[in-house]
Amino acid sequence: MTKQYSVALVGATGAVGSKMMEKLIERKFPIGSIKFLASARSAGKPIEFNGQTYTIEEATPEAFEGVQIALFSAGGSVSEALAPEAAKRGAIVIDNTSHFRMHPEVPLVVPEVNRHALKDIPNGIIANPNCSTIQMVAALQPLRARFGLTKVIVSTYQAVSGSGIAAIEELRNQSAQWEKGKDVEANILPAKSDKKHYPIARNVIPQIDKFTDNGYTYEEMKMINETKKIMELPALHVAATCVRVPVVSGHSESVYIELEKEASVEDIFATLKDAPGIVLQDDITTQTYPMPIFAENEDPTFVGRIRRDLDNPKGFHMWIVADNLLKGAALNSIQIAEALIEDDLI
After folding, report:
1. Could you tell me the pTM of the whole model?
2. pLDDT tens digit string along 191-210?
3. Which among 74, 88, 227, 325 could bridge 78 via Cys, Cβ 3.0 to 4.6 Å?
4. Residue 13 pLDDT more than 90?
5. 203: exposed, middle or buried (C-beta count within 10 Å: 0-12, 13-18, 19+)?
6. CA gap 298, 325 in Å, rounded
7. CB-based contacts of 257: which residues, under 8 Å, 6+ apart?
8. Which residue, 226, 256, 254, is CA-closest to 106?
9. Collapsing DSSP states into helix, strand and coil, what is residue 276?
């Protein structure tokens, strides 16, 4: 009989949490028992999972007694307060927020890239990387392994679902307001806590999250720092520009890389074609390339538009697309849990 595990899901009613529930069912995760935890405001409400009705419980330290795997997706402040409490009670925490990502004793994991990092979890907490980072490093790791990697420059085209359910609703509402000739209301983007907000319908916003003192946004710095940590390349040159676009789901990225060794486009194709979790979509004769409309609700990371830089023989350009709520969040979290089980680490 397959071993089963006690699971807790914190933040099940959010955009990522609901996808986690879907993937737990779809991938037949070996659940012996499951509980859904949230704030006191949501406690007591019913929630449906795999044909059964559960009651949401308040997320307190005591709620994690007996839990083996705790999936967190309820905001950084919740993870800060409760993830150590869950770990203290014996749970392995897989945290989908940014709070622990750069902690030196917390592994930051994309299973296709650095699964070996799961062998050392000193605090009982594993961090799930930023959505835009995950799909990029998943696509770059096979190339790094074969040819080496010295530089990455990325510009992202990120869907509004990355800002949550409220941002999706605002895009829909703004689109309807535009069509009716009404004034467009903007209350969410680029960052909900900002004093100034801009419409996302019929627009792109070159800011995701707050600005840091160096002129980059926190989202851009996440991509820069997380890429170096996950790939274990502290000297890697990385630059990022992160942009919000009026797409519901699916992040797209224009990525320029420089390799250590020379390679041909055919070499890149061959390397990515058989890479785990990667689907190569690149045929200019049939206008075949990745697009978010086709990546939505799909598990893989899609790569295309691969071409050599015209001035640097070791430079290549590519286009990377993935569903930010799946591989960029929920799916990667579940894959981390699966890897722990497969490698007998839990």
Report:
1. 0.96
2. 877 889 999 999 999 999 99
3. 74
4. no
5. middle
6. 10
7. 140, 143, 149, 151, 152, 153, 315, 316, 318
8. 226
9. coil
CB within 8 Å of 95: residues ≥ 6 apart: 72, 79, 83, 125, 126, 127, 128
Neighbours of 40 (CB within 10 A): 9
251-259 sheet: strands from edge to edge: 237-244, 149-158, 251-259, 315-322, 301-308, 278-280
Q: Can you read off the two tokens belonging to residue 12?
A: 């099940």
CB atoms within 10 A of CB 195: 5
Question: Judging by beta carbons within 10 Å of its beta carbon (0-12, 13-18, 19+), is residue 285 exposed, middle or buried?
Answer: exposed
Backbone φ and ψ of 205, nearest 5° = -120, 115
Active site residues: 131, 251
Q: Which two tokens stand for residue 83?
A: 């993830």
Confidence of residue 269 (pLDDT cuts 50, 70, 90): very high
Percent of the chain with pLDDT over 70: 100
Asked whether 343 and 32 are in contact (CB, 8 A), the reply is no
Integer Cα distance of 93 and 7 in angstroms: 10
Q: Exposed (0-12), middle (13-18) or buried (19+): which is 138, by Cβ within 10 Å?
A: buried
> Which tokens sit at 287?
């206008």
Q: Is 165:249 a contact under the CB 8 Å cutoff?
A: no
What tokens appear for 298 in the block? 């799909």
